[in-house]
Amino acid sequence: MSKHAALLPTTYARTIEAWLAEDIPAFDYGGYVVGDDVKVATLYCKSPGVLAGIPFFNEVFRQTGCSFEEGVEIIPHEGKVVVAEVRGAARRILMGERLALNILARCSGVASRARRLRQLADNAGFAGVVAGTRKTTPGFRLVEKYGMQVGGADTHRMDLSSMVMLKDNHVWATGSITKAVAEARAVAGFSVKIEVECQSEADAIEAIEAGADIVMLDNFGPEQLRASALNIKANCPGHQHVLIEASGGITEETAADYMGPGIDIISFGTMTQGVPHVDFSLKIAH
After folding, report:
1. What is the spatial distance between Cα 103 and Cα 141, in angstroms, rounded to a whole number?
2. Per-residue pLDDT reduced to its tens digit, 196-214
3. Which of 87, 109, 113, 212 could form a cystine bridge with 196, CB 3.0-4.6 A?
4. Would you list the DSSP string of 118-166?
5. For the residues of 259-285, what is the DSSP string, one character each?
6. Taking the complete model, does pTM exceed 0.70, yes or no?
7. Closest CA to 260 of 250, 269, 270
8. Which position among 3, 135, 193, 233 bears the catalytic label?
9. Is 167 part of the annotated catalytic residue set?
10. What is the pLDDT of residues 75-115, one digit of tens each?
11. Burial code of 182-193, b = ≥16 C-beta within 10 A, e = fewer?
C-alpha cells in the first residue's frame, strides 16, 4: 500500500461506512439475486493516469467482508490493465463495487492532474510549490486531498482551522488589511500562519507590514504577476520569510506563463474542479 496511507486519519473508515449506508439504505435486491457464492473480481484500469485511492478502495471491501489483493501481475489485455483482485461472496463484491470505483476514479483523476502540473513546473525549472485549493467536493475532501499528495502536489490548507486566509470579504467586513491581520493574529497566536489575498502591490506590502506570512496575488496576469512578485520582495527587504502565492484563473494550459523568480507558490482550483476521471471497471470472473 502507498506510504501516503499513513497520513490518513482513523475516521476515514467511518466515512466509508456512511457512504455504504447511503448506497444500501434498505433491501439489496441485486445482491439477493447473485447470493453468497465466492467469486473473484478483477479490477481493470482502462485509461492512462496515476493510480490513487487504494486505501479507500481496500476499506470499502474490508467492510463488505471481501479480501483485496494488490500487486497482482500487471498484464495489458484488450486495452485494459489488471490492477488488483477482490475475492469474496458475489453479493458482497457487488455491494461495494460502485462506491469503490467512484472513489478510485475521482482520486486517480486528481492525482493525475496534480502529477502533470508538478511535471510541468519541473520542466519549466520552477522550484516553487504547486498546490491545490480548498475548492473540493463537500464530503469528499479527504479523498481529493489524498489524490493531490499522491500526485506530488501540495494540498494547501485542509480546512478553515489549518491556516488563516483573509480574502477580500474579510478585509471589506473588517475595514482594512491591517486591521484584519491584527484581529486574526490576536486569536490565531504564533503557531498559525496568516495569508492575505491581495489585489495590488500596495495591498501586498500593507499585508506584509501588518504581519502576514503569505500574500496571495489574486487574478494577476502572467507578466504583471512576475513583475509584481519581484517588486514586492524588493520593497520588503526585512521580510524575506514572507511567501508569495499566485492564484486565480491559472490552468494547466497557462501555468508555465505564471512561473518565475519571486513566486513561491502557484495554486490551482482546477486541480479538483473539472478534472476528468480515470476509467476503472471491476469484473467478476466467468
Report:
1. 11
2. 999 999 999 999 999 999 9
3. 212
4. HHHHHHTT--SEEE--S---TT-HHHHHHHHHHHT-B----STTTSEEE
5. --TT--EEE-GGGTTTPPPPPEEEEE-
6. yes
7. 250
8. 135
9. no
10. 555 678 889 999 999 999 999 999 999 999 999 999 999 99
11. eebbeeeeeeee
